[in-house]
Amino acid sequence: MDKLMDNRWFIKILALVLAVLLYSSVPHTTNSTKFTGVNVPGEQTTETLNDVPVKVYYDTENLVVSGIPNKVKLTLKGPVTHIQNAKALRNFEVYVDLTKAKIGHQTVKLKIKDLSDKLKATIKPSRVNVSVQEKITQEYKVDTEFNQGLLQEGFAAGQPVVEPNKVKITGAKNLIDRISYVKATLNVKDQINKTISQEANIQVLDRDLNKLDVEVDPSTVRVTIPVKDISKKVPIDIKQIGTPPSGVTIDSITLDTKDAVIIGSEHALKNAHVRVEVDVSKIDDNKTMDLPVIISNGITKVSPEMVTATIVVKKQEEKTISGIPLTILGLSDQYSAEINNPDNVDITVNGPSSMVNKLKSKDFNVFIDVSNLKEGDHNVKIQVEGPSEVDWELDQSRANVTITKNNA
């Protein structure tokens, strides 16, 4: 063996064999990383990061800045390992430096720091138009707003109570100058028939009702809106207008609804009344009529607005009953009396046909009362007792009577 090792040719041949073996053990491809997926140190690549936050440096105590996007797109170019580290750690910062900016509108450049010097960064957008304004704080009174259409019929909303009723608003001077409305809007969806109280968010709007980007302290307030009943149930009065035609008497007028519900102010409801007016001047028979319900001043609504009236009439008839004898009442036993004129009377009766047609002379008691009279001739009023359902009239209203004293 020692002899072989001393042989120069043997050593050369052995070295050649070992070299061939070593060479064959190494992969021989033109692009090994392409197929094995292994990153070769120093390889260059490009990658884009979306939604990279932007940091803004400025005097937050005295200034308000607008126009800077919250996030930007960042494209990185460089070695694969450095890009992977930057992507995983996010140990860099995209920022805008406004520490020396003046008040007004200006274009500023977005910058990046704490990024590996092996990487090249492209920010999109690279520049932005910003507005730097003086920050001011003012106090405003809060108005309330809710959907009045949700009030149930017969109910009204009183004066809202807001606690606190003033808020402090902080923002850029140009926005503060635009403030026209500071509103607390109630989130109510159901019908309202009782007092409501809830927390409401504050909205700050300009005159065109655009929402302004300002800070409100406090951002919510408690709003209480008193709700009260403004309805009342009252009877419907019936008023007759005019005079019935000749021969017609109104027996009754009834309504299909006797009461109405009215809505109005508290003062108006105290003395409110409603009525229907029935013109009887043209009613000559039983009939029904649809009539409007008339309301008094201060009443805004009535229900029902129309009612149906049923009118019952009595037809009138006139009849003369003749030759009804006069009787004498109240005569003392010591006196005698004689009617000189008239001995009997005629009576004209007016009333419902059904009643008048049945009347006879016996249905009337025609008399004179002489209870307080002494001897002599007297002119005495003739009196009548008869059915209450009819009217009557005598052809003579007085009678001549002679009273004499009886002999003992």
Automatic annotation (TrEMBL):
Pfam families documented for this protein: YbbR
Lineage, highest ranks first: Bacteria, Bacillati, Bacillota, Bacilli, Bacillales
Organism: Bacillus salipaludis
Record protein name field: CdaR family protein
InterPro entries reported for this sequence: c-di-AMP_regulator (IPR053154), YbbR (IPR012505)
Signal peptide: none
